[in-house]
Amino acid sequence: MATITAKAVADLRAKTGCGMMDCKKALVEAEGNFDEAIKLLREKGLASAAKKADRIAAEGVVSILVDEKTKTAAMIEVNSETDFVAKNQSFRDFVNDILKTILENKPADVAELLTCKYLDTDVTVEAELKNKIFTIGENLTIRRFVIVEGDMSTYIHGGGAAGVIVTFDAEPAAAANEGFAEVTKNVALQVAAMNCQYAVRADVPESVINEEKEILKAQIANDPKSANKPAQVIEKMITGRINKFYETNCLEDQAYVKEDSISVGKYLENESKNLGGSVKIKAFYRFEKGEGLEKRDDNFVAEIESMMKKG
To answer: Which of 173, 145, 157, 141 is nearest to 72 (CA)?
Structure first.
């Protein structure tokens, strides 16, 4: 039986990025043959990734990459099991490389993205993802991405906790003005700070407004102070409350966070005069890391200690 030295284990770990115990086991199985150990680690990586696939990945990062030449941006959410891994530079480099792959290939969805060649390599994004799962030791998932084109502003909050892209209908003179970046960045900050559902009133489905009106009618009917008021008064009450709905849920109608006496739409109208052309909100995209996902509810430190004892 070959003698496995600590240096050999350390060298294999440096070469592959795999855990110390995995490297030691591979060297033992390969009877000290370094190249064979690397092969074993890669083969086991696929099985390792499959075993981790059912583990909850609700941490991670939201990231954005912009191609200024083509006015195209990609925003992605990639999830990990722990925040510790999400802060790892290797993980963040991987996410950035996926964004480059997205801008290069323009896939329609995550399923198509996984079949794309990873950067300029011969392996697919899916194969590289499995390699990362094995190397890092956690389940990783590419949850969603969006590709956006046109005049825009982007913002990443909290080191990747949330990401925002806002697109604008901007006249050429305004888009070319050096103040355009600051004005539109303020709108992106608004989206990050406030929970808006729609960009402008026209984006709200008629079914949503009709449902809101039915709820308001029921509330008024159940309120003794309002139930017996004339129909035209009740209609005005409903109209007023629908306007409040727009002010809460539509970006253009929201109170501007830096000057709440005016709306975001009014802010853009005012700034358009300074920029030399009209600037209006077209659409926005907001990803919040892990929103809607089940979180881990275990003690990760205890898990690590348990693994060490088993080793």
So the answer is: 145
